[in-house]
Amino acid sequence: MLAVLYVGHGSRVAEGVHQLNQFLAQCMDQVHVPIQQICYLELVRPDIQEGISRCVRLGADCVIVQPILLLSAGHDKRDIPGEIEKARAFYPNVRFIYGRPFGVDDRIVDILLERLHERRDKRTRNERVLVVGRGSSDPETLRAFSEISAMLMKRGVSRVSVCYMAAAKPLLKEGLELASKQAADKVYIIPYLLFSGVLMKTIKKSIEAGDHQASFVLCRPLGYHPALIRLLRKRIEEATHAGLSAHS
């Protein structure tokens, strides 16, 4: 029997966990798989091993492990695969299929544009967009944001730059300073985040702490947008087809 195990990041903020669970409940209604469970990478139970155990107890002999992550980095490349390897030793008769994160996709660029247009002042002629990512030391993350910037520019956003909360440069403070100096009347800041929790508060504090030449407008994060449900369904379908092809 097939199962899907959704792997969220986990958060100390209860509202963040609640929002993810609500989003995944909507997704589960549209994914026609008999066993579906939720687990977390850190801070929240059940963890991945507990999630896999629940799937097996419910009768799963094939588990799609689907990360709820925006981009591929350390969690996607090391942490979750490591947990799957542990599970294989415990459950040698269970097949595990590892799904892809959301990744760079037109649907997500559409959400970024939606967030921009929610706050955009059409009277402002001299503007730029600053996309704020979590950050990672993985070069693939930097390439992904470069691709996202190019996709936004192809959609008519002429001036786009990127900064990061940690582990990559420019960091948030430097990104704000650079954007402020680049002759823009308004800088629209779009957080590349799923949840408006602790990191959003950090962005707000950084904006308020600086003495900037430009006017900053903080947009909403991506959030658990309905378009992400369609993208998640696509990732699960891809994983299912890949697993069936490999098994045939």
TrEMBL record:
Domain of life: Bacteria
Molecular function via GO: lyase activity; metal ion binding
InterPro entries xrefs: CbiX-like, Sirohydro_Cobaltochel/CbiX
Transmembrane segments: none
Gene3D superfamilies reported in the protein's UniProt record: 3.40.50.1400
Record keywords, A-Z: Lyase, Metal-binding
Protein name per the record: Sirohydrochlorin chelatase
Organism expressing this protein natively: Sporolactobacillus shoreae
